[in-house]
Design goal:
With about 240 residues, the chain is mainly alpha-helical. It contains 12 helices and no strands.
């Protein structure tokens, strides 16, 4: 299925992945800069490489056995970093969790906002937001899956931040839908509920990814389909659908 967005915003997943990987490196760089006082490794290139390793390994282990069950010794063995090396970046699992959650939320907000800012019409913004969000969940699948599955096991303060992060990304869709209503590009009665349904379709991709993989559905195909479904709901009946 090919959408009109491909003519306006031709980026597909393989191109997006290259851009997002650069963004992840930038986030690790920012985390290093923000925590220089507490991080004992002072060589920036080494610190960034090790932070990326720590984050990736933590998410992998957490999605296999759960963050609460994972020990720092497990992390040390799986990452290839000594216990002393781990403690040079954080002092506890709680601090590590805070860093990981901040990294994911920051990257999601930044990339979504950057991509949406490149287009002006509300319908193009909506397509771009859907495609970008889905591509992000594919690039950062371990983080999104971790964030969704582990929220119930987090301390109340972390639960609150996790919920706020989800609502913040949903709010982006609310803003686009309201803008489209104001400009008469969209026709719908419940922008908040519609945004919630869009978010649910996003979650189905990364929470039940096995189901789509078994059916041979790619993230590009899923993004095209979600855009088609959403536009069939929000576009005026006389508007051309993105097909």
């Amino acid at each position: 299925m090919q959408t009109a967005s491909d003519l306006i915003h031709p980026m597909r997943f393989n191109e997006f992945r290259k851009m997002a990987l650069v963004s992840m490196e930038e986030i690790c760089h920012e985390i290093f800069q923000e925590n220089q006082a507490s991080i004992k490794t002072k060589k920036e290139s080494v610190a960034i490489r090790n932070l990326a390793n720590i984050f990736d390994t933590t998410l992998k282990l957490s999605n296999e056995k759960g963050f609460q069950t994972m020990s720092l010794r497990d992390l040390s063995q799986a990452s290839g970093l000594s216990m002393g090396a781990l403690y040079s970046y954080f002092t506890s699992k709680e601090e590590l969790l805070e860093m990981i959650q901040n990294q994911g939320r920051r990257l999601t907000r930044r990339v979504l906002r950057q991509q949406i800012a490149q287009v002006t019409p509300a319908d193009q913004k909506l397509r771009t937001a859907i495609r970008t969000h889905l591509y992000l969940t594919e690039v950062m699948h371990p983080w999104f899956y971790f964030s969704f599955m582990e929220t119930k096991n987090l301390h109340k303060a972390q639960q609150k931040k996790s919920i706020e992060g989800e609502l913040a990304s949903e709010q982006i869709f609310v803003e686009i839908l309201k803008e489209g209503l104001k400009k008469k590009a969209f026709q719908l009665e419940q922008p908040i509920l519609t945004a919630s349904v869009i978010k649910a379709m996003m979650q189905d991709w990364y929470v039940k990814r096995w189901k789509h993989s078994r059916r041979g559905i790619t993230v590009d195909e899923y993004a095209d389909f979600v855009i088609f479904v959403v536009e069939s709901i929000v576009l005026p009946s006389d508007a051309g659908k993105a097909l």
